[in-house]
Amino acid sequence: MAERMADRIAAVRRRQFVGRAAELALVGSLLTAEDAGAVVFLYGPGGVGKTTLLRQIASLGSEAGRLVLRLESRDVPPIPASVLAALAAAAGCDPAVEPLPFLASLDDLLILVDTGELLAPLDRWLREDLLPALAADTIVVLAGREPPSLAWRTDPGWSGLVHPVRLSNLSDAESRSLLRLRGVPDSAQAGALAFTGGHPLALALVADVLAQGAESFTPAATPGVVTVLLATLIETVPSALHRAALEACAQVLTTTESLLAALLEVEDARDVFDWLRGLSIIEAGPRGLYPHEVAREALAAELRWRHPEQHASIHRRAGAYYRDHFYAFDVSQQQQVLVDYVFLHRSNPILGPFVSSSAGSGMDLRSMVASQARDSGERAVARAMVERHEGPESAALFDHWMARQPESLLLVRAADGDVLGLIATIDVARATAQDRAVDPAVERAWVHLSTLEPLAPGEVAGFFRFWMQADGYQSMGPVQMFITLHFVRYYLATPRLAQSFVAYADVELWGNIAAYAEVPRVPDGDFTVGGRSYGLFTHDWRSMAPLAWLEILGDREVAEEPLAQGASTSVAPTPTGISRSLTEDEFSAAVRTALRGLGRSDGLRGSPLLSAPLVTRRQPGTMAEAEDVLRAAFREAAARMEASPGDRRAFRALHHTYLLPAQNQAKAAELLDLPTTTYRRHLTLGVERITQLLRQADADAR
Q: Strands 109-114, 139-144: parallel, antiparallel or unpaired by DSSP?
């Protein structure tokens, strides 16, 4: 049989591996011992070489006749069923067979787990359920940043079976060997050793820098070893496109070839994608490429400082990519798209702390699910949670809504099924006069609805009436991040959603985040239950459709003053007949938002353009008449584009996206028989051109 590429890659890795003799000796002794069952914890800081060592251990295991199963925790949600399925698949198990009995039947297993800290939510399950069920000679090696938990070290049953091994930097001799094997001349080694201190990732980066064409390596007088090395690497890459690819990869959670093409605005990113995959700081997983965390943060911080416009541009393109692809995924995958989208906001001055509060907790948002209560016992758990945090009066209201709209309750569950929190979403449109008399929160929401255009039959007014985590109530953290992502998914996926409401107990904590998310506070909407006051917040989805809303969030994500970007947070309806000149930025943002609403009868409701001279010069008497005038202005501008040979390609992209929209942008590109990147370029030109024409019409009306 012909040699496979994987065999060649593995052979090169073996030849270039240095050091770790003691660690390999320990594992080697366990593999050949008569009573071979063991759990080895390899732990150390980022970049210290855990993944590289696991590859060598895999080779040792194969040579010893072991069945080697590898699990990269980044690629598997920390849910028992997912971990079992991944391990069973690696062992060749038929998907129709129960995975745990199959794994338990296998002797001579060597299980290697990388990025083990992400399995922290399953620590007890691993210790008490999975590993005890496996054959007695099973060896498990978990590589991560943290040492084994206290439970592993103090449980007498695991005494003698657990081996904690802390990885440190390489010695000078080992470092020289690594550099020599990677082609670094002896003349450049002294400076590299002094600079890196034997840190394996930094040493590999030195080799990368020199491999890209640098004549020599001169260390800088700074403690930011990896940061300086990455900056040097950026300056020595083959081209500006390669540099942009490296920087773009650091901004997003994972990078696929199609996402990279969108970020770089090229039609074919295959070559540069393959180049990225070959760098020592880049890892590959089932969802795409991702940089080492140390490298990611250094690259992201450096680009934000050096080229803020490029940083913002990458984030906008990534946000557009996620928005365009959200509806193309099924419900089970939409959660991951939202996680990717939220990751973009990690450096934002308002949302950043919220995003950061869910990181480093050992809880993966992919491991949580929201599902219906299974029985009366779980509903009792939910009620007890409400009473514990909000008191008996609120618990009585919870009982009322569970009797009236029982399907409204969802429980947030951990990987092992434990209840972490709850969300109860009431449809205010279905509330009766008796409901409103019982619950002051729903009464305030109803009063606000009465000031707006009446709901059409079938339209939904959703109210996140009860939402909390079991521990911490409405404080920030990973459970609240999951709940917030559930809110977003509800906004994007609920058919005929007209209005949404949410009540915050701590308005000071959540007020800025709500304003950032374009969910303003309802005037006179506050209410009191059981002596506790709550603020009522809302969003009118008839005035600002979900995709337009996401676009505003994208603008705010990279803004120094996020709340100054995009739409106003006022909930008051726009009066007709009052003319107001918009700034250039306000006008452009309003056009983009209006384009997304053109296809709906109520899609222009609340548009700032309704108060622009473009509309008010016609003196419309009602809001509906103003919307008709604005819609006619868009039609006139589009007709001018269609008639102009120079605008025709841009018009066609605009036509299939907004005027007679396809199902999504991918379908629009298909209708136009264009690559996605070319389609997006034409669409950008189309939006710019129709904005220009409308702005000119607005100026002529003054």
A: parallel
Q: What is the DSSP string of 463-487?
A: EEEEEEETTTBT-SSHHHHHHHHHH
Q: What is the DSSP letter of 455?
A: P
Strand partners, 289: 255, 284
Q: How high is the mean pLDDT of the chain?
A: 82
- What CATH class does 5-166 carry? alpha beta
pLDDT digits (tens, 9 = 90+) for 151-188: 888 888 888 888 998 888 888 888 888 888 877 777 77
Better-predicted residue by pLDDT, 108 or 701: 108
Among the listed residues 29, 23, 33, the one whose alpha carbon sits nearest the alpha carbon of residue 56: 23
Burial 564-581 (b: 16+ CB within 10 A, else e): ebbbebebeebebeeeee
- Measured over the CA atoms of residue 182, residue 184, residue 185 and residue 191, the dihedral's sign is negative
**268-297 as b/e: b if 16+ CB within 10 A:** ebeebbebbeebbbbbeeeebbbbbebbbb
145, 101 Cβ separation under 8 angstroms: no
Residue 646 has what pLDDT?
85
Three-class SS state of 538: strand
Domain residue ranges in the chain: 5-166, 174-357, 365-564, 584-700
H or E stretch at 551 = helix 546-557
Output the pTM of the full model: 0.59
Select from 49, 28, 295 the least CA-distant residue to 171. Answer: 49
Provide the pLDDT confidence category of residue 678 given band limits of 50, 70 and 90.
Answer: confident
Rounded distance between C-alpha atoms, residue 95 and residue 86, angstroms: 10
70-86 mean pLDDT: 85
To the nearest whole percent, how much of the chain has pLDDT over 70? 84
Q: What element of type H or E holds 314?
A: helix 308-326
CATH of domain 365-564: 3.40.630.30
pLDDT above 70: residue 30: yes
